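Lab notebook, bench 4. The sequencing result for the construct came back, and we need a structural model before the next group meeting so we can plan mutations. Quick request posted to the team channel:

Model the 3D structure of this chain.
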Amino acid sequence: MKLGMKSLGTAVLAALLSACSGGEEQVTQKKEEVAPQKAADFNSVTLKPEMAQRVRIGHPTMVDIADKLQVPSQVDVDEYRLVRVGANVTGRIVDVYAMLGDTVTAGAALARISSPELTQAQLAYLRASSRATLAEKAAERARQMLAADVIAVAEVERRESELQVSQADLEAAKDQLRLLGVDSGALKELITKGHILPSVTISVPLGGVVIERNVAIGQVVQPSEQLFRVADLSSVWVVGDVPEQIARNVRVGQHVEIHVPALGEVSFDGLIIFVADTVNPLTRTVMVRTAVENPQRKLKPDMLATMHITDNPHKSLVVPETAVVREANRDYVFLAQGNNRFLRVPVELGHEVADMRPVIRGLSVEQSIVVDGAFHLDNERKLAELE
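Done. Here's the predicted structure in token form:
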């Protein structure tokens, strides 16, 4: 009898343990059922009727969009508007008229140089001029004597040949002085008065700004040395390096937008004038050169810039920027479910293009979404979550 009671007690205990275990499994199962419901409620929001006018429902749309390629760039001098000025003769600088940053006009004197070579060239010109004058007079006398039948024709021809040689020597001596920087006015004075110029000016053929100066008074210079750089900065280049993978989308004549961080929010319109035919083997980029008008000279050489190149347009599914809310570094939109009920869903979007966000993943064209007022709707969702 005792044994029977012990067996009955063991059976009752096992039944109780089984009932407890089953109860725990039911509780756990109920918790698992409730958790997804709470997660779903967290992303759901029901809008009050009086708030419905603050949102607008629509659909994602297919449009032609063009991405903007951002290319690191640098402002450079337009080399068609740049001139490098040096001395035409070996000599000593006796005066400097232009300083760094000065604005000069075409033909303006930048410095003055004195040279023994200049003196010798002027003397050679005077001698050639004298010989040419004598040869011309001798040829004229020979023609008069031939008319009087005093000399032979051969003598006249000889003197005219000497005149041609002397005139050629004079022109060569004149060209030499011009190469050394002697202008026409100084040449006339040299012939009429015989005054030897002690020095000549170093002038600039193009107007602009002196952006480099490498000379001082008393310095001895050679014709191979660069003394000044003068540039017209009313138009500049912006040069960038485009990755080879997207270089195929860049072409000459394409308009680009230039942003310079140093100038704040100001942007400039540029025109691509050159795309390199070779790839830089070290950086795997292709050089692109853009011409930008710079009338106010805000763009300065060596400024850092960003070149925004518009890509070829292509069809893409987009949503307005006003349809997107962002949280925890993720983008979301609200799906319309009817009866003022909305569900927040995550989506993968591209970078903004003209107030539109290209859809990469998470939406289709037939879905109804909140296209305007998503920010207000998300605020209502957060308030409901706090309650």
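Residues 1-40 have pLDDT under 50 and may be disordered.
Will bring this to the meeting.
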